[in-house]
Amino acid sequence: KEMKEGVGRNEPDFTVLTEYPLSKTQEGVYVECIAKPRSTVYNIPILLKIDKGIKTDGLKRAIVEAVNAHPFIKTRLKLNEDGDVLMRRMDADFSFDETAIEVKTAGSIEELKDKLVTPFKLIGGRLFRAAIIEAGDGKYLFIEMHHLISDGTSMGILLNDISRAYNGEELELESFSGYEVVIGEEHIRTAKRSEEHTSELQS
Predict the structure, then answer these.
(1) Which of 11, 30, 81, 133 would you label with 115, given CA atoms 20 to 30 Å apart?
(2) 3 state SS of 71
(3) pLDDT tens readout for residues 39-73
(4) DSSP 98
(5) How far is CA 119 from CA 8, 50, 116, 138, 180, in A?
(6) Which residues contact 140 (CB under 8 A, 6 or more apart)?
């Protein structure tokens, strides 16, 4: 709470930037993924069987609204001139629309289960995907996000907001996300280094 109340000497500056460094956790995940580019170990997929009465167009709209309410999901990675990996903030990018949500058909969900989870293009590509599956044994929603932008908690929040948006609720724009977490972590590391330096000078 204290980190969100304002900017002062002992508080992080949450001014919106266009690019952000990776957190230490993200750096570790990224290095492992680059070492094994075909691995999907850091993909977070979820496959939900949904009511056949749910309208496909309405669900697509709800997914888009939920993603736009959580801009961190739209993050893309880039390499700068020094070879550092940065997060590009993509709040104003609305290229993820209803046409980006594929509708797949199959005789049964078993025909597609082993084909749904695929590697992401880490540099420059979207780190999430969504699909609606109309199978002979039911209707399904498939969402997959990379661990670089999501964890189990954020997936649950996204799914809840998709449900809310489908039911006509207006979603509030996320105000504290992974971007602010990174800035907060960097602030703590900088403060710790400053304290250590001051301690050395006084000893």
Answers:
(1) 30
(2) helix
(3) 999 999 999 999 999 999 999 999 999 999 999 99
(4) G
(5) 42, 25, 10, 26, 27
(6) 47, 48, 49, 50, 109, 132, 133
